[in-house]
Structures are given as C-alpha cells and as structure tokens.
C-alpha cells in the first residue's frame, strides 16, 4: 500500500472520493458469450476495471500421463494486457500473475464437480483489459459465467467482491485510489447458496470489529453480484434460444 498523497480524501465522513456510500458497488456489467469461437466466455466490468474470461474443455489431457484418473485438472491463467495499466506493463507471466492464477484455480477446484470429468483438463483464461482495482475478483466473476456457458457442472456460481479500509472507514468494492492508498483490502469469494468461502485474502491491518464489518459488507455485496450473474446467464440463455 502506497503513501497517500497530501490532499487526497478517500472518505469525508459522508461519501467516498468517487461519491459512493460505504456499501455501494461500482457500476457493474456482465455479458455472457462474448467470444463466439470458445465454448464459454464472459466480459465483466466493475467501474473502470474490465476483464474477459474464456473456457476451453473439459478435454482429454495430452500427454495422458499428466492426467488424473479420478478428476479433472483445473487450470486458470490470469494475465494483464500490456495496455491495461497507465504505464505499459510487461505482458510476460509475472510472479503476481502466477499467484493470482493459483488462487483462482483453487477457488474453481472447490466449485467444479471435478470428479465428473476424469482424465480431462478445464482451461480458464482470464485477461485484464483495463485495471482499476479488483481485477482478480472481476476475473473470478467472469470465469464463473464462462464456466456456466461452457456447461461445466458446478456446485454453485462462484461470486467475488472486495472491501477495505480507507481514511479509517470500512467500505465495499475498492477502486484504484482506495486500493492503492487505503489502509487495508480484502478479496473474497463464495459459493453463495452453499455459504462456502472459496477465496479470502487480506492486506493491511484491521481490528476484529473492522474485519467483521468488512465481512458483513462483502456478504451483502455478494448477494447482489450473485443476482447479476444469474441475470447475465438468463439473458444469454434467452438470446441463445431465440
Ligand atoms: P487486484 O486488481 O485484484 O486488486 P492488486 O491488489 O495486485 O490486484 O492490484 C490492485 C490494482 O493495482 C490493480 O487492479 C491495478 O489497477 C493496479 N496494478 C496492479 N498491478 C499493476 C502493474 N503491474 N502495473 C500497474 N498497475 C498495477
């Protein structure tokens, strides 16, 4: 977390720097089936953060000795487009990309009925088109939709959100200045109807009460995003069945 520039007010006692209240989400959009050549795809935006997810598989693992006879292997590859940040970034696979790919794979391994697809792999590619905080969570929501469109059987949708502390206030769904100059941030994902947590990361310092407050805000936010995922899937289904 960087040193906050002098004069930057993230919480003025009533509103955040972009005018939102503590529990307000950014404008969120979700579109399923954005890439016609893959079996499952989705585009998700959280404010200025924009990501695309695509799913290939389940398909037989080649070479077969790398396969698992009891379940599917779930691979997630998180990348940032070179033009997704202010300064062009090196698009090569970084340490951060590796970490995010791993935690996203873990989240989906918990959700997918992997034992229904032995000997196969399910490859999920998530790419950040524009980064303005919460990219891992936007990617997770997009991948959840893409998996559904690909017909991969899951225990539940996987739904994610962030929260954090800015100028001493716990707030939901951080944007870039909040993520950069806030005191703490959370990334959180659940299977909402199962009430199971599949991802939980935190950076910074929070008291127990602040943690509880953040969890409360995020659980609320998750319900709203869950409904948005369902609406996006329904819209795609209606379009497909025309
Ligand atoms: P997340 O995007 O999931 O919140 P981080 O906490 O690592 O992940 O990053 C927070 C934000 O910082 C990103 O969304 C992006 O706006 C910015 N950021 C991350 N990595 C880079 C980078 N290599 N170059 C420029 N900005 C970055």
TrEMBL record:
Pfam families (UniProt xref): RNase_PH, RNase_PH_C
Places the protein is found: Cytoplasm
Keywords associated with the record: Cytoplasm, Exonuclease, Exosome, Hydrolase, Nuclease
Residue ranges constituting the Exoribonuclease phosphorolytic domain according to the UniProt record: 24-153, 156-220
Organism, scientific name: Huberarchaeum crystalense
Main location class: cytoplasm
Protein name: Exosome complex exonuclease Rrp41
Keyword Transmembrane helix belongs to the record: no
Ion transport among keywords: no
């Amino acid at each position: 977390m960087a040193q906050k520039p002098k004069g930057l007010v993230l919480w003025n006692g009533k509103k955040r720097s972009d005018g939102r209240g503590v529990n307000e989400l950014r404008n969120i959009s979700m579109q399923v089936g954005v890439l016609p050549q893959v079996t499952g795809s989705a585009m998700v935006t959280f404010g200025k953060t924009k990501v695309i997810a695509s799913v290939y598989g389940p398909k037989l693992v080649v070479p077969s000795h790398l396969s698992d006879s009891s379940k599917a292997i779930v691979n997630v590859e998180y990348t940032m487009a070179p033009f997704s940040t202010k300064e062009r970034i090196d698009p090569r696979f970084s340490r951060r990309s590796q970490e995010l790919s791993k935690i996203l794979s873990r989240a989906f391994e918990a959700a997918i009925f992997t034992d229904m697809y032995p000997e196969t792999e399910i490859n999920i590619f998530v790419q950040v088109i524009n980064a303005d905080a919460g990219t891992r969570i936007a990617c997770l929501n997009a991948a959840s939709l893409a998996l559904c469109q690909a017909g991969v059987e899951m225990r539940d949708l996987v739904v994610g959100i962030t929260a954090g502390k800015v100028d001493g206030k716990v707030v939901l769904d951080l944007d870039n200045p909040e993520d950069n100059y806030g005191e703490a941030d959370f990334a959180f994902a659940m299977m909402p109807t199962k009430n199971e947590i599949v991802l939980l990361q935190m950076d910074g310092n929070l008291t127990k009460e602040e943690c509880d407050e953040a969890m409360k805000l995020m659980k609320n936010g998750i319900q709203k995003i869950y409904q948005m995922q369902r609406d996006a899937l329904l819209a795609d289904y209606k379009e497909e069945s025309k």
